[in-house]
From TrEMBL:
One of its GO terms (molecular function) is glycosyltransferase activity. CDD domains: GT4_AviGT4-like. This is Glycosyl transferase, group 1. Keywords: Transferase. InterPro entries: Glyco_trans_1, Glyco_trans_4-like_N. It comes from Sphingobium indicum BiD32. Residues 171-304 form the Glycosyl transferase family domain. The keyword Membrane does not apply. The keyword Cytoplasm does not apply. Residues 18-121 form the Glycosyltransferase subfamily 4-like N-terminal domain. SUPFAM superfamilies: UDP-Glycosyltransferase/glycogen phosphorylase (SSF53756). Coiled coil: none annotated.
């Protein structure tokens, strides 16, 4: 198939540091190319891909200090997508909602993956106004607040199987917190759990400007108070394998309806179990007693730390291999592309045949 992937412009594809959506777009795009599809990626110009790259901006918008408003750049991207829409058998959007009013002429060949939380009050009336677009949720829980819409399915995220090597031996006996410092991620819980468990906690996380006051007022004082806590800062993909792989467990003490939680399957790929609070997608991702423990309180989390030695790290990695590879994710999406009501699943093949016929006529 000839497939367009339309990415957000805030980060490159893949991102240099934090950026879950852009990371998934990269994994999906590269796997689709690997499976033999003709893929075009609309993204920032500093993206890296084996697909055809259509660079909308020179660099990721988050890294450009002159950018104040990101919407004009996304609208410029959508105009390029609109002009080239007839080239593609399927167009896959990862930018939430901006494109929905603009794709009516080729709506039957489009699918939109919703990567964020959907329990915000302004979203139901918007999606109620566009009920015919094929939408994908990244967990069943994510879609619960939505009005009746055209769900194409729930497709869980996946990682390349060889991206993060499993570490099956004993690690360095610390707990890991990876992601973003924010109230809903509850790093304060992680600090208290580690302190009560008597283990070191390593925090590798970015601090957005919007969360700077939360960090300075609530979390930094806790880091200073407990000698077992080490704040590392934001880490890149190369550092992630060792950070997660050497940990006894990943703490995922969230307090919000997490749509998916990519870091959970990153830990599982490293054969590192996850101790996660029962919120959002957690019960869909973690198999209790196999890939980690699902808890409802800090007391239960401390108890889970104590029984970590009873988990087989090989089974943690096995749970990842069975459900969360990029190959499985791409296969699920291709099946969805074929099921789109306007999908032109033979269009790319027919174009190639027409090109070959024309070449033969020229030679004759």
């Amino acid at each position: 198939m000839k497939i367009a992937q339309i990415a957000p412009l805030a980060e490159s594809v893949p991102p240099r540091f934090y950026g879950g959506t852009e990371r998934i777009v990269s994994y999906l795009t590269e796997e689709l190319v690997h499976q033999g599809h003709d893929v075009t990626l609309f993204a920032s110009g500093d993206s890296q891909t084996r697909a055809e790259l259509v660079p909308i901006t020179d660099m990721a918008l988050r890294l450009n200090p002159t950018v104040i408003d990101t919407i004009p750049y996304h609208m410029m991207m959508l105009e390029q997508v609109r002009r080239r829409a007839n080239e593609f058998d399927a167009l896959h959007f990862h930018i939430d909602m901006l494109h929905l009013p603009m794709v009516q002429d080729f709506i039957g060949r489009t699918v939109t993956t919703l990567h964020g939380r959907l329990d915000l009050p302004d979203l139901p009336p918007f999606y109620r106004a566009f009920p015919d677009h094929s939408l994908v949720s990244i967990s069943d829980h994510q879609r619960l607040p939505m009005p009746p819409v055209n769900w194409g399915g729930t497709i869980y995220h996946g990682l390349p199987a060889d991206l993060l090597a499993p570490r099956l031996g004993a690690g360095e006996n610390y707990l890991a917190f990876l992601g973003r410092i924010s109230p809903e991620k509850r790093p304060d819980r992680a600090i208290r759990i580690a302190a009560r468990s008597g283990l070191k906690l390593k925090i590798a996380a970015k601090i957005d400007n919007v969360d700077r006051a939360y960090w300075e007022g609530e979390i930094a004082p806790l880091v200073d108070r407990y000698p077992n806590v080490e704040y590392i800062g934001e880490i890149n993909e190369q550092q992630k394998a060792q950070f997660l792989g050497q940990a006894s467990a990943l703490l995922f003490p969230i307090d919000w309806p997490e749509p998916f939680g990519l870091v959970m399957i990153e830990a599982m790929a490293c054969a590192t179990p996850v101790i996660a609070f029962r919120c959002g997608s957690v019960p869909e991702v973690i198999e209790h007693g196999v890939s980690g423990y699902i808890v409802d309180s800090e007391d239960e989390a401390v108890e889970a730390v104590a029984v970590l030695p009873y988990l087989d790290r090989a089974r943690v990695r096995g749970a990842f291999d069975a459900r969360f590879t990029a190959e499985r994710m791409a296969t699920d999406y291709v099946a969805l592309y074929h099921d789109l009501r306007g999908a032109r699943t033979d269009a790319a093949r027919l174009r190639r045949l027409r090109g070959q016929d024309a070449a033969l006529q020229i030679v004759a």
